[in-house]
Amino acid sequence: MKHHLFLALLNLINSDIHKCVTCLCHARTGCYSLQNCAKYSISYDYWTDAKAPTVENNTGINLQSYTKCIADDNCIIHTIRNYGTSYLGNRVSGKITFYKVANAQEEIPKIWDPKKQ
Question: From residue 117, how far is each of 9, 47, 90, 92, 100 by CA, in Å?
């Protein structure tokens, strides 16, 4: 059985990443609400591929943790950042920034596009 260690999420609200995710959300869906975007764009599989960040410590990978995450702006930001960073891996040179993740979104399966899920 695989065990996961769930730690409190770093607060990314009002950070450059938060601003970028909000802009990306608006560009892809026409909406500024991260929670509305997440409801339609972050599937359970996307969330688990993003290392399943959780709002509360040690809650595990389950539907309840997923539901809480997509209802929390900070957790949504972590989900998108984790997924993009994981997907890009060695595909880009230099430090992986959220701007590189956003610019590569057309190459990333399932990122902010319900039609690709």
Answer: 26, 12, 23, 24, 21
Task: Delimit the domains of the chain by residue range.
Answer: 16-116
Sequential pLDDT tens for the chain (117 residues): 444 445 578 999 998 888 888 888 887 778 889 999 888 889 999 899 899 999 987 688 999 999 999 999 999 999 988 887 777 765 666 666 666 666 665 555 544 444 444
pTM score above 0.85? no
CA distance 26 to 94: 27
- For residue 6, count CB atoms less than 10 angstroms from its CB and return exposed for 0-12, middle for 13-18, buried for 19 or more: middle
Burial annotation 27-42 (CB, 10 A radius, 16+ → b, else e):
ebbeeeebeebbeebb
What distances in angstroms separate CA 81 from CA 3, 74, 100, 111, one per listed residue? 22, 11, 11, 10
